């Protein structure tokens, strides 16, 4: 039985925190083998005595799909690791995987620890009882797909081509694709924390609620208290004494108020972060969070009470040689280019993203719509009880892992399914309720390919009736289709979750530029459009029918190696929140007009700078539609200018003549 306590605020002095959880990395050399005919278990590969030492050597994290020895292998594979035990005292030891794609089965010293399904979310096992001085860890991985995997193949549908129904939507990059570690914890430990900080935009203070999830794995009951301290604040919280029986779990909730003088709001242009340090007995957990308010009012998306309309992108997790591993150097390069392209309100991926990506978004300021993996599920799949439970499991893992990130403003419950069907409507209604049961502080949406169709005559005809804002994947005829959506939902914002044109769909890049400039003109005529996410930031490998002969689906603003196409440079200007115009120049000086867009994108600019011929000029705060002028010296007949966002991101460069 799980107990639950709601504890009132008691102010206490600052105290010394207890023992922290400790990580021991297992990222190193492992041995590896493919198992294409699935004989491993029958032959005892999982046993600690199995002679795996002569298998191939790999370094984990590892993506066997991009390893030249197993290039694009689909099927079962095995990883083996020998490691020494660690001194734990009375602590428990957990084996933690950040992600394994897609199905995994794990043994330690010949004992089956358990299984996991889902390729992008973390999971762990308690290995205290199995740990020895010398240990053999064996992981079986399967990256194959069928009609029961998420995502996967489709069950039979009259409107799907036979080859597409069987196809996987992107490369099924297999392996232990993110880090592996051992974690030591006290017998009574904090398994998770959830921090919700809601500002009062009138009074300036912020209500804070910290839910602490506690497990007692010890042999006896424990009586303890939960305490919390907030960085940059004098607020200290503690609970009443609680008793947790052996083998049980409980949730303790602390509530309080951060005074106005200690509140600095989190915003994409000012991403201020706080830290909550929570202690229970001998265990301490720390998590970062932001104080911000995101809400929908009518057709507006408000961040801290101010309407925002922003560009965005979709970023398939794919880089040459790394597949879906997403090392720091790739992540930093991509997100810097995305932020520098003013692509800040993004349905970033069709699947859960890494903690490193969300940490970057928190620290540098991005608004993220996180999505779990319902990619074009069929009505039959969406009505299947087992599939629903499987999706909810992956959705839960994503939400409970990411709910403290201020960059995450919404959850999407899928992409491009038959949302006009009764099964599709039931899916969105039920999954929205499930999300709210876990985290009611975020907005809910899904990416529809149906809502703008002519046969959708009223809101009840399609599942967007159940979401906070409508998301639509629109490829052409943007204005008419957006107007149709608005006629159905005149009081809801609309987010263009995908739009774009492939490089191999035109003769020249100029045609693609013209097509997408026209799309932006259409968006700017629709005051209810809050964002538009380009498909895609980067090209990506795929086996899906219609892929280019070189193996890529070439939608990207940048090439696979991230070299920018002309589209990226144009998009910096199109997604920039200002227009810049040279009014006149003479006698070695220029008069420049800077206007904050009032159509799309549009939001209040604070702390921006204009750099001209090497000299920086601070801009005044500009609300949408407001304008200012600068009179600046010229070096020659031209002015090389750059618009710089807070954080140092150059979001526009041009030459004024």
From TrEMBL:
The source's superkingdom equals: Bacteria
Where is the Glycoside hydrolase family 2 catalytic domain positioned along the sequence? 294-515
Q: Where is the Glycosyl hydrolases family 2 sugar binding domain?
A: 25-186
Which GO annotations describe the biological process of this protein? Answer: carbohydrate metabolic process
Which InterPro entries does the annotation name? Beta-gal/glucu_dom_sf, Galactose-bd-like_sf, GH, GH2_Domain-Containing, Glyco_hydro_2, Glyco_hydro_2_cat, Glyco_hydro_2_N, Ig-like_fold
The entry's keywords = Glycosidase, Hydrolase
Molecular function via GO: hydrolase activity, hydrolyzing O-glycosyl compounds
The chain positions of domain Glycoside hydrolase family 2 immunoglobulin-like beta-sandwich read 189-292
Gene3D superfamilies according to UniProt: Galactose-binding domain-like (2.60.120.260), Glycosidases (3.20.20.80), Immunoglobulins (2.60.40.10)
Per the record, the similarity remark reads: Belongs to the glycosyl hydrolase 2 family.
Question: Under which name does UniProt file this protein?
Answer: Beta-galactosidase
Species this protein is from: Chitinophaga agri
């Amino acid at each position: 039985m799980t107990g639950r306590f709601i504890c009132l605020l008691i102010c206490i002095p600052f105290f010394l925190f207890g023992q922290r959880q400790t990580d021991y990395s297992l990222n190193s050399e492992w041995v590896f083998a493919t198992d294409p005919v699935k004989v491993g278990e029958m032959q005892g590969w999982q046993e600690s005595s199995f002679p795996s030492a002569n298998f191939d050597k790999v370094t984990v994290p590892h993506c066997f799909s991009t390893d030249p020895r197993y290039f694009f292998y689909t099927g079962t594979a095995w990883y083996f690791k020998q490691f020494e035990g660690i001194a734990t005292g009375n602590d428990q030891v957990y084996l933690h995987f950040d992600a394994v794609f897609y199905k995994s089965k794990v043994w330690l010293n010949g004992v089956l620890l358990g299984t996991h399904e889902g390729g992008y979310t973390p999971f762990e096992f308690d290995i205290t009882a199995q740990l020895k001085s010398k240990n053999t860890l064996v992981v079986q991985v399967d990256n194959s797909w069928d009609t029961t995997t998420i995502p996967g193949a489709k069950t039979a549908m009259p409107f799907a081509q036979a080859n597409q129904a069987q196809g996987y939507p992107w490369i099924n990059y297999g392996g232990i694709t993110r880090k592996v570690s051992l974690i030591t914890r006290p017998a009574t430990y904090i398994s998770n924390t959830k921090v919700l900080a809601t500002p009062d935009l009138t009074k300036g203070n912020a209500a804070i609620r910290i839910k602490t999830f506690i497990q007692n794995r010890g042999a006896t009951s424990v009586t303890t208290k939960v305490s919390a301290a907030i960085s940059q604040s004098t607020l200290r919280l503690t609970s009443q004494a609680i008793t947790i029986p052996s083998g049980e779990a409980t949730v303790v909730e602390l509530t309080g108020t951060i005074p106005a003088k200690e509140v600095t709001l989190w915003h994409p242009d000012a991403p201020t972060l706080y830290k909550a340090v929570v202690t229970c007995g001998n265990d301490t957990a720390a998590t970062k969070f932001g104080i911000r308010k995101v809400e929908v009012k009518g057709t507006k998306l408000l961040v801290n009470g101010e309407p925002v309309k922003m560009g965005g992108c979709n970023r398939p997790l794919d880089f040459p040689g790394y597949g879906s591993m997403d090392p720091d150097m790739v992540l930093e390069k991509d997100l810097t280019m995305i932020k520098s392209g003013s692509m800040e309100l993004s349905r970033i991926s069709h699947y859960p993203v890494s903690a490193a990506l969300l940490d970057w978004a928190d620290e540098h300021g991005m608004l993220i719509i996180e999505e779990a993996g319902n990619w074009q599920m069929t009505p039959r799949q969406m009505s299947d009880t087992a599939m629903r439970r499987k999706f909810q499991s992956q959705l839960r893992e994503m939400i409970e892992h990411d709910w403290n990130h201020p960059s995450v403003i919404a959850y999407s419950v899928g992409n491009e399914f038959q949302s006009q069907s009764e099964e599709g409507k039931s899916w969105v209604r039920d999954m929205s309720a499930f999300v709210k049961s876990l985290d009611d502080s975020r907005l809910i949406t899904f990416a529809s390919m149906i809502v703008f169709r002519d046969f959708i005559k009223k809101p009840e005809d399609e599942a967007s009736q159940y979401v906070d804002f409508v998301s639509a994947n629109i490829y052409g005829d943007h204005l008419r289709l957006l107007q149709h959506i608005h006629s159905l939902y005149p009081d809801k914002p609309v987010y263009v979750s995908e739009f774009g044109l492939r490089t191999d769909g035109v003769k020249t890049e100029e045609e693609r530029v013209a097509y997408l400039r026209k799309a932006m003109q259409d968006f700017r005529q629709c005051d209810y459009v809050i964002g538009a996410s380009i498909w895609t930031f980067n090209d990506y490998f795929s086996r899906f029918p219609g892929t280019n002969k070189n193996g890529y689906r070439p939608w990207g603003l940048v090439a696979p190696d991230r070299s920018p196409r002309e589209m990226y440079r144009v998009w910096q200007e199109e997604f920039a929140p200002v227009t810049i115009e040279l009014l006149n120049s003479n006698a070695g000086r220029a008069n420049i007009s800077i206007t904050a867009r009032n159509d799309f994108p549009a939001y209040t600019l604070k702390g921006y700078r204009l750099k001209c011929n090497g000299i920086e000029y601070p801009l005044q705060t500009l609300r949408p539609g407001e304008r200012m002028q600068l009179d600046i010296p010229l070096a020659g007949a031209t002015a090389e200018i750059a618009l710089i966002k807070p954080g140092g991101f150059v979001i526009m460069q041009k030459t004024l003549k």
